[in-house]
Automatic annotation (TrEMBL):
PANTHER family on file: METHYLTRANSF_11 DOMAIN-CONTAINING PROTEIN, METHYLTRANSFERASE TYPE 11 DOMAIN-CONTAINING PROTEIN
Species whose genome carries this gene: Stackebrandtia endophytica
Keyword list, A-Z: Methyltransferase, Transferase
Name of the protein in its database record: Methyltransferase family protein
Coiled-coil annotated spans: none
Pfam families from the UniProt entry: Methyltransf_25 (PF13649)
Keyword field contains Transit peptide: no
One BP annotation, GO: methylation
InterPro entries named among the record's database cross-references: Diverse_substrate_MTase (IPR051052), Methyltransf_25 (IPR041698), SAM-dependent_MTases_sf (IPR029063)
Residue ranges of every copy of the Methyltransferase domain listed in the record: 46-137
């Protein structure tokens, strides 16, 4: 098949599920960013590929103002709703692809990517973002698995292997992504891209949080639909049948209707412009 290319259906239908099905970043992520930047309350933040504000909302209070951009208008609407609920009012939400930066947005003290950079034209975006950073600015990449917890035999986690098998039965063995597929997963080699664009580093901070997160069946269903590889639109007219089977599978897996998972590690990677 041809090389995968982004299209606007990548997360179609997932926005409402994202905030429900993804576990939030622990507060220690924002604390680690504040320490790395040497203080809080000044400058501007740009969150690229912000989705429903999962990273923007906890980081925005560290800055005088913030901008979140995303190519999915439904994600931005959800971000605005969640920011209002969290009492975060210093964020401007912009419907914009990362490849269209700088878009007259100005200069920023920090530009963040929360599990989003791999979906972009990385060389182009890295070069354009570098030109938007102040001389003492920082590129912040936050990575981690937030739709499911770390493997922990002492807790009753959702039966993820059976969920994966169910998705495969409906969508096939090759990972779906928008209108295309990713047979080998998303791209690696980020360090090469960053150095080629004129960044130095990186410094890495691994944030661990041993909290046990409890989730009900609705939350696990939303976790599945929050993924690009199992976004609602991919099931087309079989969406109802898939959700019915998924809920039956989850109901059989728990006598209480609830699951518990240990929050996995989150990595904060910081690059500086040379």
């Amino acid at each position: 098949m041809d090389e995968w290319a982004w299209d606007e259906t990548l997360f179609a239908g997932s926005a409402a599920h994202y905030g429900v099905g993804r576990m939030p970043y622990p507060p220690s992520v924002a604390e680690a960013v504040a320490e790395a930047l040497g203080g809080a309350g000044t400058g501007r933040l740009l969150d690229v590929g912000c989705g429903p504000g999962s990273l923007t909302i906890p980081l925005a209070p560290l800055f005088a103002s913030a901008v979140g951009i995303d190519a999915d208008p439904d994600m931005l609407a959800e971000a605005g709703r969640l920011a209002d609920r969290a009492g975060v009012s210093n964020v401007e939400w912009c419907h914009l692809r990362a490849e269209d930066l700088p878009a007259d947005l100005g200069t920023f003290r920090a530009v963040s990517f929360g599990q989003s950079f791999h979906w972009m034209d990385r060389d182009l975006v890295a070069c354009r973002v570098r030109g938007m950073l102040s001389p003492d600015g920082a590129w912040i990449h936050v990575g981690g698995t937030t739709h499911r917890g770390a493997v922990d035999a002492t807790h009753s986690a959702p039966p993820w292997h059976r969920i994966d098998e169910l998705v495969t039965r409906y969508l096939g063995p090759v990972r779906r992504a928008g209108r295309g597929t990713l047979p080998d997963g998303t791209r690696s080699g980020e360090e090469i891209v960053m150095r080629r664009a004129g960044f130095a580093g990186p410094s890495r901070i691994v944030v661990t949080d041993d909290r046990i997160v409890e989730r009900d069946i609705d939350e696990v269903v939303s976790a599945v639909f929050s993924l690009s590889s199992s976004a609602p639109h991919l099931f087309a007219d079989r969406l109802g049948a898939f959700e019915l089977e998924l809920r039956h599978l989850l109901t059989e897996a728990t006598a209480t209707g609830r699951f518990s998972e240990r929050l996995g590690p989150i990595e904060v990677v910081i690059w500086r412009p040379t």
